[in-house]
Amino acid sequence: MKDKVMRAVFLAAACVCIVCVALICVFLFVNGIPAIGEIGALRFFLGTRWKPGQGLYGIAPMILGSVYVTAGAVALGVPTGVLTGIFMARFCPARLHRLLGPAVSLLAGIPSVIYGFFGITVLVPAVRGLFGGSGKSILTASVILALMILPTIISVSEASIRAVPVHYYEGSLALGATHERSVFSAVVPDARSGITAGVVLGIGRAVGETMAVVMVAGNQPIIPRGILEGVRTLTANIVIDMGYATDLHRRALIATAVVLFVFILAINLLVSPGSRPAAK
Amino acid sequence: MKARSAALRAAVYAAAAITALTIVFLVGYIVVKGAPHLEPELFAPKYTTDNLSMLPAIINTALMTVSALLISGPVGVFAAVYLVEYASRSSRLARGVRLAAETLSGIPSVVYGLFGRLLFVAMWGLSLISGAFTLAIMTLPLIMRTAQEALLSVPDTYREGSFGLGAGKLRTVFAITLPAAAPGILAGFILSVGRIVGETAALIYTAGTVAEMPKNAFSSVRTLSVHMYVLSNEALYVNQSYATALVLMVLVIFINAGSNAIAKKLTIHSL
Q1: Are B125 and B143 in contact (CB under 8 A)?
Q2: Is B118 on the interface with A (CB under 8 A)?
Q3: B114 closest CB neighbour out of A88, A242, A268
Q4: ipTM of the complex
Q5: Which overall architecture, per CATH, does domain B40-270 show?
Q6: pTM for the model
C-alpha cells in the first residue's frame, strides 16, 4: 500500500518537469501568438520601431541586437576559449592547472550583475575613452558576454580534448610531428564535435543573458549603424518594459519571449546530434 | 615547420594568458575597490537610504534560497528516484522528462521572470513566494539531473544486498540508495544555491525590490543580487556598490567551491 502511494508520488514528481514546460509553452504561446496576429506578423518581425506609446511594436532592432552582440561575443570568446581549453588540456603544467582550473570555474559562478557592474565601472569608461561616444555599445556588450561564455567554452573544449585517445597524439609524435602539430592536427580535429557543442552552449548563454547586457548595451531600440552604437537585445526588451507594461504592450513582450524561446530551442536542436560524443 | 609550431604555441599561450589576466583583473578589481568600503553600517540590521545596509538583502537571499529549494528539492529528488529506480531507462516517460529538463535548463532566466510574473505574481503579488516558485522551476532540472547521476552511481550490489535482507523497494530507496547518493545530491543542491544567490532577471519582477525583511511569505523581498542591481543602477552609491559586489562575489565563490569540494570527494570515493 505504502509502496504504491510513494510510487505514485515519485511518478508525479517526474511529471512536474513536463508539466512546467507545457505550462510555460502554453502561457507564452497563448498570449504571444495572438499578439503577433494583432500587431501583424510583418510589422512585428520586420518593424523597425518599438514605440509602445504609439502602438508601434517592431522587434527587428532587438532581433538584430541579439544577433550582433552574440556574434561579437563569439568572435571574441570562442578563439580565446578554445585555445585556452587546448592549453589546459595539452600544454599546461600540472601545478599551473591546479590554479587555473578553479579560476575558470570561479569565473563561471560569478553572477551576471557583477559582470554588468564590472562593465559599467571599467569597460564603459574604457570604450568611451578609446572610441568616444557614450561607451555603452555593441562592442562593450560583446566583450562582457565573451567573458561570460569563456568558462563554458574552456571547460567543454578541455574535456573533449582530454577525451581523445592518447595514441592519436603518440602516433603523430612517432611520425615525427612536433608537440604543437600533433595537438592541432591529430587531437583537436577529433574533439571537434565536443568543441562545437561547447560553442553552441556558449551562444545559448549569450543570447539568453539579460542583466549584464542591460547594464552595458545602452538599450536604444534602434537598428545600430556601427559597433560603437547602443543596442537593445530581445532579453533587454523584456526586462526593461516588464515592470509597467499592460494589455497589448505586455502581450508584445510575451511575443518577444516567444521569439527568444524559439531562438534558444533552435540553437539547442542544432547541437543535440553533435553533442553526444561518437562512441569509440 | 618550426615556425608554424612556434606560432601555434604562441597563440595557445597568449589565449591562456588573456584568460588568466582577465580573471585576475576582474576578481582583483572587485576586491581592491570593495574591501576598503566594507563598513559596519553596511551590515546594519535595518536598511535606510543613508546606510544602504545589505543585511536585510542577505537574510532575504537566505529565505529565498530555502523557500525555492523546499519546493524544487523534494520534487527534483523524487523525480530522479522515479527515473532511476522505477522507470525503465528507455521508457517514453523517461525520454519525455529528459527532453523537458533539457528544455527547462535552456530557457533564459528573463523568460522565467516573465512567466512567474504572469502566473505567480497574478496570484500572490510581488512576493517571496512568487519568487520562490519561479526559482524552483528554474533550479528543478539542475537538481533532478545531479540527483539522477548520483543515484545511477550507486552500485547495484547495494540494492541487491538490501533486497536480499528482505527490504522492500521503498525501504531500499530511503534506507540504502538515497543515503548512498546523498553527497552527489547535496552537490546539486549547493550548485542550485549558487544559481539562486546570483539570480536577478527572474526575481526583479517576481519578488520585487523591497529592501526589508519580509513580514510573511506574501511580502516583497529584495535579494542581494537584486540589491546589487538597484544600487549600481542608481549610480550615486559607487563605494557601497563595490562593497556589495565584493560580498556577493565572495558568497557565490564559497558556495561553488563547497559544491566542487563535495563533488570531488565523491569521485575519489567511488574509485
Answers
A1: no
A2: yes
A3: A242
A4: 0.88
A5: Orthogonal Bundle (1.10)
A6: 0.89
